[in-house]
Amino acid sequence: MSVRIDQFNHYQPLQPRKQSAKQNVSFGQLLNNELIDQRLKISKHAQERLNQRQITLSDEEWSSIERKVGEARQMGVNDSLVLVSDAALIINAKNNTVITAMDREEAKTQIFTNINGTIIMD
Fold first, then answer.
1. Where do the structural domains in the chain lie, given as residue ranges?
2. Distance (Å, rounded) from C-alpha 85 to C-alpha 57?
3. What InterPro entries does the database record attribute to this sequence (predicted)?
4. HSE of 39, CA atoms in CB hemisphere, 13 A
5. In a structure prediction context, what are the per-residue pLDDT tens digits for the chain, which is 122 residues long?
6. Which of 56, 75, 96, 101 could serve as 49's disulfide partner, Cβ 3.0–4.6 Å?
7. pTM of the prediction?
8. Chain centroid, CA 74 distance in Å
9. What residues pair up with 103 in beta bridges, in sequence order?
């Protein structure tokens, strides 16, 4: 998708920023917001695949995946294949989003492209 710069309306007046709301936020609130943002999101497509394939992961497994995806992101990984005991997940590390899911048996016959990292957790 390309966007041409002349498509933007350059003559819209700028809205004044609401700085007072940001200044009243405590460090703890900012930290909590950042921690919440670190949690994995599951796309609608991935949730449908998890449901269709009856793949369930425990909270402990999701937490481990979140930690490893965070480590991978720090190493520069954008899109990763995550292999757990019962599933293969494609996760966009940059956006913390599970893109799709399949069971390990199905994953054996797949070719994964456009990933730049693999996390093996079984």
1. 40-120
2. 9
3. Flagellar_put
4. 8
5. 555 655 555 555 556 655 555 567 888 877 776 665 678 999 999 999 999 999 999 999 999 999 999 999 999 999 999 999 999 999 999 999 999 999 999 999 999 999 999 999 97
6. 101
7. 0.70
8. 13
9. 87
